[in-house]
Write a structure and sequence with these properties.
It is a single chain. The protein has eleven helices and 17 strands. By secondary structure, the chain is of the alpha+beta class. The protein folds into three domains: 2-85, Rossmann fold, CATH 3.40.50.20; 114-173, Dna Ligase, domain 1 (2-Layer Sandwich), CATH 3.30.1490; 179-342, D-amino Acid Aminotransferase, Chain A, domain 1 (2-Layer Sandwich), CATH 3.30.470.20. Helix 1 links the parallel strand 1 (2-6) and strand 2 (25-29). Helix 1 (10-19) packs across helix 10 (275-284), helix 2 packs across helix 3 (73-82) and helix 3 (73-82) runs antiparallel to helix 4 (89-95). It is globular. The chain binds adenosine-5'-diphosphate and magnesium ion. Residues 243, 255 line the site of magnesium ion (MG).
Amino acid sequence: MNIGILGAGQLSRMLAIAGIPMGFNFIFYSPSDQNCVKNLGKVINKSYDDQEAVIEFASLCDVITYENENIPYETAVLIESLKPLYPSANTLLNTQDRLLEKQLFHSLNIPTVPFKCVDNYQDLFDFVEEYDFPVIIKKRTQGYDGKGQIKIISNKDLVKLEGEMLCNLIVEKMVNFEREISIIGTKSLNGEIAYYDICENKHINGVLHRTCNKIKDPIFENAKIYLNKVFEHFNYVGCLAFEFFQCKGMIYANELAPRVHNTGHWTIEGTFCSQFENHIRAIVGLPLGNTESLANFEMENFIGRLPLLNEIFNLKDTYFHDYQKEPKPGRKLGHISRKIGYSL
Ligand code: ADP
Ligand code: MG
């Protein structure tokens, strides 16, 4: 069976590494020429709006999925007209735009921090009048790893933006959360659902640095309820990650990722069946695997540079993943996961 993946970054790499031993072949479609998936399958290096190339790609695949939500909606619709696409084009549309996503949370009665659509300076000014500093503005689409976001802490930051083109943004009240958490679940074609333990996540300047699983966390049941609402709404198939801010025992939805997620990398070694394997099982209609945590695990991203192999392999119970990417400041190049209790 041939599985197509839109995108050729580290998530595609880890999906293929999980799926190859199961007997699947992989075909990657990506506008950028990356090393991550080299030798893991056929790579089609064309732009997403090259209809002919997209049709050719679809003709080679039995089922298609994606590794990021910044794929043009039109491309997803075209693919869906040709082959099964999971998660659906409609799911992609509603999760690639922060405004649509936040409106979805409201329609499903999932709490969020206060937010508003911003299309000019006055919109932003009015929001600050109502909710006060600090606030954060975010591009509605195409942002990731904190890109396309500006924190507005004081009046000085606000007035700087007065002459700027402000449109297609949202503004959110910045919250002083106790912790950031995420939950990842998988729903298969035949309706089966499996959840991983929630994770506690540390971001620096909007980029994920560390994650640890929290076995039987008190917030797990609540997070599961919210995840289920989204599963149901979209008639979802595949892995879904849901990020939250926790404040005073309450959780507020931050964002969804309709795919495997960086906060689930620990599941490769920390569970019997990783998020990557379960995503593949889900989209081809196989029974899902066991998601129970095997131990307390911690995952750490390597951003901008990789440590020396000696440094890593001197540590006990540590697993290393090199994504084979060109080093660049701010770029995620690899990660380690390890049982908690050892430090680098
Ligand atoms: P991205 O798509 O880049 O992950 P997020 O909306 O998740 O975008 O923002 C990245 C990080 O920035 C969050 O994980 C969090 O640490 C911080 N952040 C974003 N929005 C808020 C907010 N309203 N209040 C406090 N911190 C925030
Ligand atoms: Mg995020």
